[in-house]
Write a structure and sequence with these properties.
heterodimer, A: 492 residues, mainly alpha, B: 393 residues, Rossmann fold, 3 domains, six-stranded mixed β-sheet, four-stranded antiparallel β-sheet, 10 helices, 20 strands, 32% strand
């Protein structure tokens, strides 16, 4: 039942993630902007093409340098050898590389450039140009990576219960919004000091410009806004992920324990019947084996002979160990068989005498019920989402809150500062700190109360003793004579 | 999340258990409050050196609703004889997201459990007893003495001084000579089992020490002797602080008193033979069949002197000596150096025992040296032999 409930929760959460993704792609983020480069080439292909080109240039240039260096070092530094190397590289080896002539011409700014002209002098310029292309592609490539991470982790979150996966999935989507906003912010900041970086200017902004236009006056319009919807749905997704994790943490041990114990009990019952049926055979085999061993070792192993025959003393331990070795396996078998049978009988009797023993052993009765879990999850969910909405609304409307709830004088509420965006911090800071502070306070008060109560009861010493040492020291130190007297009196 | 609202306690199926038996431990958790606990973890702590978890688990992680109770249980197998503590119970309460947690040890959650020596030897005797008559099994016994009594013993010719009331007139008429009837009185034998409880007896693997074997032998002897209506007493000794005496008594109930008595003894302290025997002779003087079970790892002179102290009381003394190397070499894969060492130790120990043997020869006391395989057999056969010969009446 609990497993079914968990699966339903996971399916709901996956559906929420798709909903979130749809809002993100339709209303917040223009993915087309980051799919292809300015040359209408797919970003992924352009990115890996640039990496391939850089390595090709390095290998080609590096090869030429090595060949020239080898010629110089070996003394063949005549013009003829140099020409030979150049011809070899430019005519033959170049055909091994798939250089894009148009792209090279573009990077070098020379429309008449031919591949046969590619020499060592061109390599640094080509690498620099390709690196620049790589960096501009890398910005777009980040979005593709984040997109993939988000999808992969959403799938992992569905398959596993760890909320960490859900956090990564949401975090990746949020990063896809934050990265262009940061670039935009940096660009604006540099514009203030009249500084222009071409590279920054060329970076596209895939985030919808309406992102900053949040309706603040109407609660419903506020909630219906794509950005706010996105934030709320993200929260709901994470909240559900934590609820799933909680449900799993609470139910899994009980369910696993129940399964494990049931399996153990079944095996025990089966083995117990088998051993009961075959115990005589096992014992007979063990007895025969023992007889054989005894007859084999008779001479060396009689303890009396150890004392009598001085000549045989030294071999006794060796022989005894050898015999123990032989006996060990059969002894184990007989002991295991006997123990299994005894345990089987014991469990049968226990289940007969104690009607709830089976349930307590498998802890079936202690597993939380799906209905209770569902009720608790729904109540907690509504409570938290509601609280989140109210707190978000209050934080975004500090003016309304300070004027209506706290009833501050107009000199404050109507001041210019109240209409600046930074005023949000006045409420954001305290509200964010409110929960950890309350939690710490409760923890501190509880701890103090416990210490006071234990001191009153004089139990601290007792608890420390019970945790640290199982042996009752008082008993060891008690005068034994008195104890002996007591025993004697009792027995009398 | 008020942890005080949780009531946790342990229920033991039995507080006294044999070593090779099982014990079912149940833990009950009750939430007396009106709020549920989203995440609780209860752990019942036990010492794995003393107990083996056989079935179930000693902890649980779950959720508990308001005003509700949950239970879990597990089965333990005691590993070592003695009196040990089970517990305490530890409770951990966490919030739903695991940000906040409180852990507490439940007060008064330590339960003492008394573990008797293994019952397997007794069981074997019981099975044998049920299969055939114990008397036949154990041989002829002469625990009865001819003389005054109620049980008919036999007839013989009249001799001067016999009481007239004992003359069987019918038989006399038949045989034409005076015949008297003889009756016998039943006489109890008192068996005193003296067990060395010094620390040297604890050598070897924890479950199979000389002391554990000595206790098993003591239990077996008690059972057999009580079945044959003898009185059995136990005295365990090491140093001055560890002298425990259980008065001899008979009857089925006394067996459980012996069990309780030996279950609580721990091997500790140095063996002070002379002091121990002084104490014993002060407490008990009646002529009896004394079984002294000791590894005799003390000064040979002291041992001889101590045993001589028992001589004036006309005890029949049988010394059972568990030979230390036989008990302590339990590792199968010994290196050749270890083997050589073991052999050297065995030889030294043997010389030591021979020395004590020589000292006691004059007193007519023999030392029966035995290993783990034949210890029970030796104890039982020596008891039977003593009974057969009518010793210590």
């Amino acid at each position: 039942m609990a497993r079914g409930y968990l699966l339903i929760l996971k399916i709901i959460n996956l559906a929420i993630f798709f909903w979130l993704f749809i809002i993100f792609l339709t209303s917040i983020f223009d993915f087309n902007e980051v799919v292809s480069t300015a040359d209408n080439q797919l970003v992924i292909l352009a990115f890996f093409g640039a990496i391939r080109n850089i390595f090709s240039y390095i290998i080609f240039g590096g090869g030429m340098i090595i060949a020239f260096a080898a010629a110089i070092l070996t003394g063949f530094y005549s013009g003829y050898i140099f020409n030979l190397i150049e011809v070899f590289f430019k005519r033959y080896l170049i055909s091994w590389f798939s250089f894009d002539l148009e792209h090279i011409r573009e990077l070098l700014g020379n429309d008449t450039f031919q591949l046969q002209d590619l020499g060592l002098q061109n390599i640094p310029k080509l690498i620099m140009g390709e690196t620049s292309v790589l960096f501009s592609d890398f910005y777009l490539f980040i979005f593709q990576i984040l997109f993939l991470i988000s999808i992969i982790y959403a799938i992992r979150a569905f398959l596993k219960m760890d909320p960490k996966h859900s956090l990564v999935a949401i975090g990746s989507i949020v990063l896809m919004i934050i990265v262009p906003l940061m670039v935009e912010g940096l660009r604006n900041m540099l514009n203030l000091i009249n500084l222009k970086i071409t590279y920054l200017d060329e970076m596209v902004n895939p985030v919808d410009p309406s992102l900053t236009q949040i309706p603040l006056d109407d609660l419903f319009a506020f909630i219906a806004n794509p950005v706010i919807s996105f934030a709320i749905i993200s929260y709901i997704y994470l909240e559900l992920a934590f609820q799933i994790n909680y449900t799993d943490t609470v139910t899994k041990p009980s369910l696993e324990r129940s399964d494990r114990l049931e399996a153990q009990l079944n095996i025990l019952s089966r083995e117990s019947y088998f051993i009961t049926a075959n115990i005589d055979k096992i014992k007979q085999e063990a007895k025969e084996r023992r007889k054989e061993l005894e007859s084999e070792e008779k001479e060396g192993l009689v303890i009396g002979k150890f004392f009598a025959k001085t000549g045989k003393r030294f071999s006794y331990i060796k022989e005894m160990i050898e015999r123990k070795k032989l006996e060990e396996e059969e002894k184990k078998l007989v002991t295991a068989a006997s123990k299994t049978r005894r345990l089987g009988r014991y469990i049968d009797r226990l289940f007969r005498e104690d009607s709830e023993a089976r349930d307590t052993l498998t802890a079936r009765s202690s597993a939380p019920k799906a209905r209770n879990l569902a009720t608790s999850t729904i109540i907690n969910f509504i409570y938290r989402v509601g609280l989140l909405l109210i707190i978000s609304f209050i934080i975004i409307h500090p003016h309304w809150f300070l004027k209506t709830i706290l009833q501050l004088p107009p000199a404050i509420t109507e001041s210019v500062a109240m209409y600046s965006p930074e005023v949000i911090i006045i409420l954001l800071g305290p509200i964010m700190l409110l929960f950890p502070v309350i939690s710490k306070l409760i923890s501190f008060i509880k701890h103090r109360n416990l210490i006071i109560r234990l001191q009153q009861e004089g139990r601290i010493k007792e608890l420390l003793t019970s945790v640290g040492d199982y042996v009752k020291k008082e008993e060891l130190e008690a005068p034994v004579e008195e104890e002996a007297e007591e025993v004697a009196t009792e027995s009398a | 999340m008020n942890i005080e609202e949780l009531r946790v306690h342990r229920e033991l199926e039995k507080e006294k258990v044999f070593k090779d038996d099982f014990v079912h431990v149940k833990v009950v958790i009750e939430n007396t409050g009106r709020n549920s606990f989203d995440f609780i973890e209860i752990r019942d702590i036990y010492n794995p050196q003393l107990f083996r978890l056989i079935l179930g688990e000693n902890f649980i992680s779950t959720r508990i609703g308001p005003k509700s109770t949950i239970k879990f249980s597990y089965v333990l197998e005691p590993r070592v004889r003695g009196e040990y503590a089970l517990g305490p119970l530890s409770v951990t309460v966490k919030d739903r997201l695991g940000f906040n947690s409180v852990e507490r040890i439940v007060p008064d959650s330590v339960t003492d459990i008394l573990i008797y020596p293994p019952y397997e030897d007794i069981k074997r005797i019981e099975i044998l007893g049920s299969k055939r008559s114990l008397q036949l099994n154990y041989g002829v016994q002469r625990s009865k003495q001819k003389g005054l009594g109620s049980e008919f013993y036999g007839m013989r010719k009249y001799v001067f001084g016999d009481q007239f009331r004992l003359i069987d007139w019918k038989a006399s008429a038949r045989s034409q000579t005076l015949i008297v009837k003889e009756f016998e009185t039943e006489r109890d034998v008192t068996v005193m089992i003296l067990v060395d409880s010094s620390e040297t007896m604890a050598g070897g693997a924890i479950e199979n020490t000389k002391f554990e074997y000595a206790i098993r032998a003591c239990m077996l002897l008690t059972k057999v002797a009580l079945t044959r209506r003898d009185n059995v007493g136990v005295f365990t000794f090491s140093d001055k602080k560890n002298l425990n005496f259980l008065k001899p008594n008979s009857g089925e109930e006394h067996f459980y008193q012996v069990l309780d008595f030996v279950a609580r003894i721990k091997p500790q302290g140095k063996c002070k033979f002379v002091e121990a025997m002084d104490h014993f002779t002060k407490r008990f003087q009646k002529r009896s069949l004394v079984f002294l079970i000791s590894d005799l790892e003390a000064n040979p002179k002291d041992i001889s002197q101590a045993i001589k102290k028992l001589a004036p009381f006309n005890h029949t003394i049988i010394v059972i000596n568990p030979f230390s190397p036989w008990f302590e070499i339990h590792e199968i894969d010994l290196s050749s150096t270890d083997k050589a060492l073991a052999e050297a130790i065995s030889e030294e120990m043997m010389e030591h025992i021979l020395l004590i043997r020589q000292g006691l020869r004059n007193l007519g006391i023999s030392i029966i040296t035995c290993g783990p395989d034949d210890m029970m057999k030796q104890v039982l056969s020596n008891y039977m032999e003593a009974k057969k010969k009518g010793k210590a009446y």
